[in-house]
Specification:
97 residues
Length: 97
């Protein structure tokens, strides 16, 4: 009778082990699927960030060109304004003579 109980215990343990192994296999498959989705998500975000960075670089480059153009225009405006002021001073000096 002891042998039968021992054999039944071993069979029960094997059945429990087999069921646990099956659940573990399912969990591993689910983990692998989740990991793959996570990897794809990270790759998509990385690609989107790279596109955004490239776009920002283009905008910064355009902004720098615009700033240089505005600075050049400002120099020209300053020169014209200085010439106008000088002209007005010369005209005012002629009238006061």
């Amino acid at each position: 009778m002891d042998v039968e109980r021992t054999m039944q215990f071993i069979l029960d343990q094997q059945a429990t082990f087999a069921a646990n192994m099956e659940r573990l296999g399912e969990q591993q498959a689910q983990f692998a699927a989740n990991l793959d989705r996570y990897r794809q998500n990270v790759e998509a975000r990385f690609e989107r960030n790279e596109r955004q960075i490239r776009a920002i670089r283009v905008l910064v480059k355009a902004g720098r060109k615009l700033l240089v153009a505005v600075q050049e225009q400002q120099k020209q405006t300053d020169a014209k304004l200085t010439a106008l002021i000088d002209s007005l001073h010369r005209g005012a000096n002629r009238h006061s003579e």
